[in-house]
């Protein structure tokens, strides 16, 4: 596991979080070499904010760009069982990942990211396999409907209904319904939190958003967001600005594709940050990246949880950016993140 330091969540915060240090790095507020390499290999810096425009957007090309190369780190056999959940009005593809021939297992629903418009189980297949191996739990990945073909609340409805279905079919799948958690990365992290806020939250022992996209509002509408809130050494600032703008620019575009009605941008099932009723959440583990566009909304949400006396632990990976969970086998922080999740759900 990576070295850790306990520090205040943010300037002026009364609460602390666990900071995961960059391997072989003693300085604070520096960018991880993996992030620097990614920006430099792209050949371009994004140093200005651009208002969203979907006029010439090629959705199919955007979907192809999602995800990163990753490796299968498993040393044990992991069985993968694709299944089609049949509901009265639709079918939802899911995949079970589990150690075979094990007694009744705890379970964790995993929801992939992709800005609500892309991504799939296949993109994070190795992560699901490794999580199943390290936790001993059954991992269930959901291939929910994507926007713009199926806009909000289709993805949320699919994830919520799969949780409900799992609870009612737990015996058939040898799952302990009293030991069910949910996790997701990026858009999937927001969907995981939305499920926790909804009526199925009562079934969930732990909710784990990984750099969750907790606010789909356009960046120009946010009064809490500012570049100056991301501390970084001067020589690394261009890398941070580039990675922040990559998702700051994209978020407004995704809002236009995901929502049929712009007024839904502050619907808690689309943007959990704006939830006022947190009573269905029992326990939350928030995983952040220091230089993620959504980190400030995650910090705010953690403060909301603490103010409501809901148990919440925050782990922040220093020097990392949005999307690091994709890079299993190439990024030490990805492996560490999965080991942390496994430890918390055992």
UniProtKB/TrEMBL annotation:
Keywords: Hydrolase. The keyword Hydrolase applies. The keyword Hydrolase applies. Pfam families: Abhydrolase_3 (PF07859). InterPro entries: AB_hydrolase_3 (IPR013094), AB_hydrolase_fold (IPR029058), GDXG_lipolytic_enzyme (IPR050300). Coiled coil: none annotated. GO terms for molecular function: hydrolase activity. Residues 108-325 form the Alpha/beta hydrolase fold-3 domain. PANTHER family: AB HYDROLASE SUPERFAMILY PROTEIN C4A8.06C, ALPHA_BETA HYDROLASE FOLD-3 DOMAIN-CONTAINING PROTEIN-RELATED. This is Alpha/beta hydrolase. It comes from Anaerostipes hadrus. The lineage of its organism: Bacteria, Bacillati, Bacillota, Clostridia, Lachnospirales.
């Amino acid at each position: 596991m990576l070295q850790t330091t306990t520090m205040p969540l943010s300037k002026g915060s009364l609460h602390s979080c666990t900071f995961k240090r960059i391997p072989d790095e003693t300085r604070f507020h520096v960018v991880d070499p993996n992030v620097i390499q990614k920006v430099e290999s792209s050949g371009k810096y994004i140093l200005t904010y651009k208002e969203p425009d979907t006029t010439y957007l090629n959705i199919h090309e955007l979907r192809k760009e999602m995800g990163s190369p990753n490796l299968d780190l498993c040393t044990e056999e992991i069985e993968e069982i694709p299944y089609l959940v049949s509901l009265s009005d639709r079918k939802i593809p899911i995949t079970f990942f589990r150690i075979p021939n094990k007694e009744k297992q705890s379970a964790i629903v995993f929801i992939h990211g992709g800005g609500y418009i892309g991504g799939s189980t296949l993109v994070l297949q190795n992560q699901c396999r490794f999580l199943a191996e390290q936790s001993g739990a059954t991992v269930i990945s959901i291939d929910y409907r994507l926007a713009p073909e199926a806009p909000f609340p289709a993805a949320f409805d699919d994830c919520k209904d799969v949780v409900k279905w799992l609870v009612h079919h737990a015996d058939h799948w040898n799952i302990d319904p009293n030991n069910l958690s949910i996790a997701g990365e990026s858009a999937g992290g927001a969907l995981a939190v939305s499920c926790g806020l909804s009526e199925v939250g009562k079934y969930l022992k732990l909710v784990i958003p990984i750099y969750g996209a907790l606010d789909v509002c356009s960046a120009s509408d946010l009064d809490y967001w500012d570049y100056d809130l991301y501390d970084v050494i001067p020589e690394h600032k261009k890398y941070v600005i580039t990675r922040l703008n990559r998702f700051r620019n994209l978020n407004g575009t995704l809002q236009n594709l995901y929502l049929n009605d712009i007024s839904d941008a502050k619907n808690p099932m689309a943007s959990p940050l704006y939830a006022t009723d947190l009573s269905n959440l029992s326990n939350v583990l928030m995983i952040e990246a220091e230089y993620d566009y959504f980190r400030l909304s995650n910090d705010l949400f953690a403060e909301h949880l603490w103010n409501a006396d809901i148990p919440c632990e925050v782990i922040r990976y220093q020097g990392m950016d949005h999307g690091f969970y994709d890079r299993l086998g190439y990024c030490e922080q990805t492996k560490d993140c999965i080991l942390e999740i496994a430890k918390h759900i055992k």
